[in-house]
Amino acid sequence: DSSSPATAEDLLATMHKYWGYEQFRPLQREAMESVLEDRDSVVVMPTGGGKSLCYQVPALCKPGVAVVASPLISLMKDQVDALTACGIRAACINSTVTPAERRSIAADIRSGDTKLVYLAPERLLSERTLDFLSSVDVSFFAIDESHCISEWGHDFRPEYRMMRMLKDRFPGVGVHAYTATATERVRSDIAQQLGLVDPELLVGSFDRPNLNYRIERRKDRFAQIREVVSRHANESGIVYCIRRTDVETIAEQLNDIGIKAHPYHAGLSDEQRQQHQEDFIQERVDVVVATVAFGMGIDKSNVRYVVHAGMPKSLESYQQESGRAGRDGLEAECVLLYSSGDLVTWKRMLGDLPDSAQQAAFHSLEALDHFCIGTECRHRMLVSYFGQDLADAECEACDVCLGTVDLVEDGLILGQKILSCIVRTGERFGADHNAKVLCGSRDKRVLELGHDELSTYGLLQDQSIRAVRTWIEQLAGQRFLVKSGEFNVLKLTESGRELLRGEVTPKLTRPDADADDKPTRRKR
Ligand code: ADP
Fold first, then answer.
1. Which ligand 1 atom is at minimum distance from the Cα of 51?
2. Per-residue DSSP letters for 378-399?
3. How far apart are CA 78 and CA 271, in angstroms?
4. What is the pLDDT of residue 367?
């Protein structure tokens, strides 16, 4: 009986009928049910987790049209094409749609034929659209990439803020927010900014056990890329860069050594981008070298590796970009080439943001930096950033757990030197000050405090301040230290005291031979 409300069984049957899938992915059932129940929800799933189906399937099971807000035209078009290919009536309204087409789309919505309509937020919130939607049967609203509403997210878009209007204009119609950004702060910001009423919160697991993470210092960029690419002959991979010029250069270098690669960035024409994307999906080329513009809507399951030749701007971005590898669940490799210079580049590029957004962006960069220099399991560090924990002690799929990170041999002694300095300065100072004391700096404050008199002064005078700061970060990451208060004062933990007694050894990395700042005194 088509007039009775849909049930959970209908969801499975509908998904099977149109998409051919036999089972739900984790949390899909719960997410779809909350749509059927007309309550609000916030659904957090990692990239590739299957968020789209969470609103597409119930859209088919409910009377009326589901309205999807999505930030990118290309993304909308891809989705509508995919739905149409499955035999589903869907449309998108954007600037490329002619008035005549718009009228026909409106007629199909009015008659109830169209089950999903995709719109950019600014178009959705125009008076004209809102008036139109008020006159038809809207089944629910789905807000894709909903982290864009939060300044704490990595991709803030002011026009998302206005979406709050939906709850006022359409009381009783469910609003569902979807994102791959799971930090607690962003999550509650989404619910609050949208004015959601008692939303159901569904957060999926962020671990991608089939991805093997590796972080290398960037030394000879192309040699490092080549090493990965040539290990995957005839397999698909993505190389990410920050700048367009790097994209062009690397794509050329790859083609020069006989590897079929396409560039992809915002400077290419729409047709070129479309063509390059199509060639990649159809496997006419193996590699796409891209700026982050690539991949927002890409649905290719057998990407075997993702190399970051330039650093991403946050762990959210890293999760998303590296997450494009291995969507088929088979093993895939994610290599990030670390360079502190890139962090400076990002800071410059993010310098134009409004103050509060800039602060959030810098905070994200710092978290990324800590992830890169950290010496704990990469899987664990990543999921813990997203507020989750891992059951297994060792993942066996990252450079740290596999023991390929370049560690110093005398980690214990080095750790003891650093911790005793922190104790000598009274556990009242941050990383910077302690690093200066250890390196024997003539800094005014060090001298004023008489810290040049301490036995730990200059203990690491052959090391750069940067190297010592990295070790302090690594000790904090391994919980030998905690940072407290607004000045990040360093204090020893119980395991820090065990380290001082020589009962545990920390993992500290060998300092970068060609780091940006060399020690002040050089040995000859
Ligand atoms: P997200 O938006 O979370 O990144 P998508 O919605 O694009 O993820 O889904 C990723 C891929 O997984 C798509 O190819 C989709 O068709 C597929 N998929 C989604 N749900 C299922 C399922 N239950 N069974 C099999 N494949 C699925």
1. 3
2. HHHHHHHHTT---S-S--SSBT
3. 15
4. 92
Chain segment 432-453, per-residue pLDDT in tens: 999 999 999 999 999 999 999 9
8 Å CB contact between 483 and 490: yes
For the stretch 24-37, pLDDT in tens is 998 999 999 999 99
The closest-lying atom of ligand 1 relative to the alpha carbon of residue 22 is 24
Pocket of ligand 1 (CB under 6 A): 21, 23-25, 28, 45, 47-53, 299
* Cα-to-centroid distance, 49 and ligand 1 (Å): 6
| Cα 129 to middle of ligand 1, angstroms | 29
Cβ-based neighbours of 83, under 8 Å, separated by 6 or more: 56, 90, 116
Q: What six digits make up the tokens of 164? A: 């709050």
Q: Which of 157-166, 474-483, 494-503 has the lowest mean pLDDT?
A: 157-166
Which residues in 218-341 belong to E strands, given as ranges?
236-240, 261-264, 287-290, 303-308, 332-338
At residue 349, does pLDDT exceed 90? no
Q: C-alpha distances in angstroms, 211 versus 45, 51, 78, 199, 227?
A: 16, 20, 26, 32, 18
State how far the Cα of 86 lies from the Cα of 179, in Å rounded to an integer. Answer: 24
Which ligand 1 atom lies nearest to the CA of residue 45?
Answer: 3
pTM of the model: 0.77
- Tokens found for residue 439: 């390196």
Retrieve residue 347's tokens: 């800071």
Taking the CA of residue 301 as reference, the ligand 1 atom at the shortest distance is 14
Calculate how far, in angstroms, residue 104's C-alpha sits from the geometric centre of ligand 1. 30
What distance in Å separates the CA atoms of residue 50 and residue 78, rounded to the nearest whole number? 15
